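Quick one: co-fold with glutamic acid.
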Amino acid sequence: MTIVCRFAPSPNGFLHLGHAHSALVNHAAATRAAGRFLLRMEDIDTTRCRPEYEQGIIDDLDWLGILPPEPPRHQSRHFDDYAAALARLEEMGLLYASFETRAEIARAVLAREAAGRSWPRDPDGVPLYPFSRESMTEAARARRKAEGEPYVLRLDMGQAYALAGAGLSWHEAPGDPLAEPLPVQADPAAWGDVVLARKDVPASYHLAVVMDDDLQGITHVIRGRDLYAATAIHRLLQALLGLPAPIYHHHALVLDRDGRKLSKSTGAASLSSLRALGTTPDEVRALIAHGLEPASQPTPST
Ligand code: GLU
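Sure, here it is.
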């Protein structure tokens, strides 16, 4: 079996050392296995993604010496694939339209908490959706859709879980991306009724990543530990859509001096700015090694 890995950044900003680490780990695994390393532009959010960021990604990978020979796949050119997957889930009765604004959702969570109940959070710490499919009748939903009101499509997690979620696991390669993977119990229900198509974008990260990992024949999904828990949603979608499950490896994150995950919002230096300062690719590798979080791995379990 040929090993196929991918680096899948969103071109909504310049790459930093955390991205470089992910790309390098993927490239190293593909090279070691005499496999393929692919690039994917996760650009479904066409309002935030920009050509100059995309060019920046290409320039940075080229500078690091790991630019794949094949052109990248652009998610923004494949909305039809995501629409087809949504149609299948809709036919299975697993999707529903939800019309609330972010502010309405935040207010509902506050109201529930003011009533003395602590409202559950998803693994990223975001409050679960405080309504449900039953909060509105199908007739009301159809009327609001017909009136042209914007809506998101949510996965009915209760039904999806009943269909494919119980006993679901994914395979995680601990330590080394090419190590023998171990099963990890998937807990998609911890995420509640996740959004699979947004108001402004007819897809979501979760749906698009699962479809593209299949369409690009990815055998090993290698990415940061911040996406470990979300793998449960990806595994559930694979099971619902009848897609093969790749092996996963969630690598350590690069942290800043304050122990925070690097991000644009915390002012992480971009690779292009490091390059402009005369930093070499070898020095980038050393900086990454210096900033890696301690080696504790999420523990696979059955
Ligand atoms: N596009 C995602 C990001 O930039 C990565 C998705 C993935 O590797 O699954 O964080």
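If it helps, Residues 8-10, 42, 209, 223, 227 surround glutamic acid (CB under 6 Å).
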